[in-house]
Amino acid sequence: MSVEIIASKCTGCEACIPACPYNAIEIRDGVAYLLDSCVFCGACAKECPSGAIVVSDLGPDLGPSSKPSEDGRSEAHDGHGDGVWVFVEQRNGKPAGVVYELLGEGAKLASDLGEDLCAVLLGYNVQHAAEEMLKYGASRVYLVDDPALESFQDEPYAQVICELAEEYRPSVFLFGATTIGRSLAPRVAAMLKTGLTADCTKLAIDKETRLLLQTRPAFGGNIMATIVCRKKRPQMATVRSKVMKAAQRDQARTGEIVKLSREIIAPRARLLETYPIPGQHVNIQEADIIVSGGRGLGCPENFALLEELAELLGGAVGASRAAVDAGWIPYAHQVGQTGKTVRPKLYIACGISGAVQHLAGMSSSDVIVAINKDPNAPIFSIATYSIIGDVVEIVPALISELKAGGH
Amino acid sequence: MNYFLTEEQEIIKELSAKIADEKIAPRAAEFDESEEFPWDLIRVIADADLFAVWVPEEYGGLGGGVFEQCLVVEELSRACAAVAVSYAASGLGGFPILMFGTEEQKQKYMPEIASGSKLAAFALTEPDAGSDAGNIRTTAVRDGDFYVLNGTKQWITNGGEADIYVVFATVDPEKGQRGMTAFIVEKGTPGFDFGKKEKKMGIRASSTTELIFKDCRIPAENLLGREGKGFLIAMRTLDKTRPGVAAQAVGIAQGALDKAAEYASTRVQFGKRIGEFQAVEHMLADMATQVEAARSLVYSVARTIDAGEPNITKASSMAKLFASDVAMKVTCDAVQIFGGYGYMRDYPVEKMMRDAKITQIYEGTNQIQRSIIGSAVLKEAARRK
Amino acid sequence: MNVVVLIKQVPETTDVKIDRKTNTLVREGVSSIVNPFDMYALEQALRIRDEHGGKVTCISMGPPQAEAALRETLALGADEAILLSDQAFRGSDTLATSYTLAKAISKLGEFDIVICGKQAIDGDTAQVGPGVAEHLDIPHITYVSKVEEISDGHIRVRRMSEESYDVIMSPLPVLITVLKEIGEPRMPSIKGTLRARKARITVWTASDLEVDDEMVGLSGSPTQVVEIFSPEIRPGGEIIEGDSAQEKARNLLIRLKEDHLL
Prior knowledge:
The complex is a heterotrimer of chains A (407), B (385) and C (262). Chain B is α+β, with helices and mostly antiparallel strands. Chain B has three domains: 7-119, Butyryl-Coa Dehydrogenase, subunit A, domain 1 (Orthogonal Bundle), CATH 1.10.540.10; 121-228, Beta Barrel (Butyryl-CoA Dehydrogenase, subunit A, domain 2); 231-378, Butyryl-CoA Dehydrogenase, subunit A, domain 3 (Up-down Bundle), CATH 1.20.140. Chain B has helices at residues 7-24, 28-34, 39-47, 66-79, 81-100, 103-115, 230-266, 278-306, 313-338, 340-343, 349-357, 366-384, and strands spanning 120-123, 139-143, 146-157, 164-170, 180-186, 192-197, 208-219, 223-224, 268-269, 272-273. In chain B, α5 (81-100) runs antiparallel to α7 (230-266), α7 packs antiparallel against α8 and α9 (313-338) runs antiparallel to α11 (349-357). Chain C folds into two domains: 2-215, Rossmann fold; 232-262, no CATH class. In chain C, α2 (67-76) crosses α5 (190-198) and α3 crosses α4. The B-C interface holds B 7-8, 11-12, 15, 18-19, 22-23, 44, 47-50, 52-53, 62 and C 186-194, 197.
């Protein structure tokens, strides 16, 4: 896509300037001018009342990427067209939680494209996990089982995945946006010279072009962007956990396990040892109920109140970045853009103002309760239930009511 | 108000403000509570080259003067007066060496003071010699290639933490002021000890101790200036450093004013922000005007000194007198605006009020300042007749 | 030790807000800053140079105003700063960006370590680091929380994972991306700031880098943004009333019970 300003039509009304997320429009000699920071997203064109901004496709060969053939299955594009792939990240043979969500989402995409949902599993002694992937919806599992792949290391994993992708040519390749995924996927994408979109919150197949529409937040979550990868394949995307819906297990499902062996090159960067992180083992992403605290708690000691409330409710304790940066609670509890994304049934935000970066990590929660003494706190705009009050009074009241009511 | 600083002065001010806001302010209450000397903050200040602003380039400094030092002290004081005075007192100890030292002495001590790797201190006050500085009893007796110091100094800022001390002793108690002589004494010299760290009302993190000299032998090369020149050295030094104390007062006042104004814009009582009540609004107006007036006076005096004006005593005293009185008033008013919260140690303004008080007392009490100014005024009147 | 730091100038995104009435970004008073994670990368680079000697070079790809960000790095102690700026780089996605940055690093000649921040706070992709490593054909390690040792042409680091950390050893040259745990960035110094104001920042264009035109800018970007919109505004919910904290608490619990959450 390319964006151009037709100077003769531009009236200098400046309606386009605030629409640009990249600060890339300036008025020079009375007409709008695009600066180097323009990324050709076209947001300005929508705002122009004079039709002076033109968005056009580049070149003739950027049409629909592939057409469905008579039997509904897509024809190979650029040789690709064989599958929606999901990378099965695993530790000690146990797939990461996000994998099930990718399979859930991947199944929809595969169905829309008329292609197969496949899982790609690398590891050592992980046959059983391969079988599980079939139960969760994969039609085919590409399995490379090798001692050299026992623990994740960037180079051997990237090498094998790359070879598989070049050989079997999937249309779409999904990875979890985990520590491993965010290291592996970009390397693979660069090796395959294809496009990768990170942290997608929504994936869909465009009906006309049959392209994967990848939607993700940018600017700390202040705007959403939809991205496509027109020419290159596979279309790669990473997805954070707790964003998509997990696939359901079906014992009756069967499929094919394609067991492959590869000559694996010894990595330059070698894993020497893995250590568990000392201290409390927290995985708030698994919790159904989260009681979360922010700067409004006033002092670190008040987290004890939240711990008590969480315990009574059977939930976990989360925190805003402000509380973690202040040293009131370890980073493992941080919810938000630079922390964890959570999607519990109930999220109780205590003394959290609701900065966009925090909302990015919890806004998909089913029910949100916000407790804050500032009636203008942004958190209230997304809360299901709002209490305007001092956290230090409300939380103890909740605790005593819960204890009294024998809930 | 725009004071049309040069580019270099802007850099100094901005960097000082950045350190104050990012590194010092978050920890001011913690240091006030623990009364620990803030060494890691001193190191941050030193690494930023701020100790060098008033030192000539040939000694590793940036070549600025009193004005640049005032810029630093003012910004640091907004965040914490104790950290600021620890910085400023090193200047108080360094200025006499710069102004009256031999080339050897300057080469030996100034680079380390400029880099902040060593702190300096100024040791004049004694139990019986406060305002009456000429009444000091610490003696210095020549013995071959050494001087032997005996006596006690009191309330010395940076005591125990500084490495370089400018100490005033008398070589002849009969001669009174004219016997006073300045010496450079290094920490660790045998016979040089420190008393306990004093417990103060404010600037609590700053180290204030006694210095105890018992047959302390220092090399004769450590004589600063000449025998008998000590009183002059002390007075000339104070003339140059009073603007620094004044700048500290301005900074404290500005910090208190900022907090009070923020509070008045958010605290709601009787359905209104309290800043909208004239009583509070007018208090803030008076506070702001006083602070600006104090700042203008301090800046003018500092610029005059740096421009080479020789007769700076009256102006320098005025700046210190006015700014410190303003700081005391503004900080008290700030506590008042905060109401009950102002009295609580969880809120920052009561510390500022406790910190402000000392600015009316040290480096010459405000009563002494008034005497200096008054006597100068009368002298000028007499000359006009 | 020749250390290269990749820098990006970004808007202070925490300042960016959406005007709900017009659904556009409100950017008044939004300043441009050095990407915060890159400051940590620079700090790590300076520490390596302080310990092992050598040179720290900062490289940034961006419009001419990105020079300001590079000057900040010089004020902190970087030895050289290079800006990659050319109309031809417009519209680059992470693949084209990593190709271009890799060309610049190759042009520098010998290097030992390339350090990047974990991610840029505007794009949030964290993709450029590994991409650059691939283009340079060197190993990469992401999420480094600590550099344990550099000796004998090798580096040993800790990489953070969700629940554990790995100790990884790699030969040099290597690319690492770092977390805030790496250590607090230092403050600029006056001498550094003055030097930075006067310093010359090298600018390299597409022809200086001898890039393949198909690999940079729009042409070199497999991905493109096709739409930008503001996130869904969830409707505000119910305000729980009550005369006292106790009553509010009670009323909330009634609601939650009705919703079968308790």
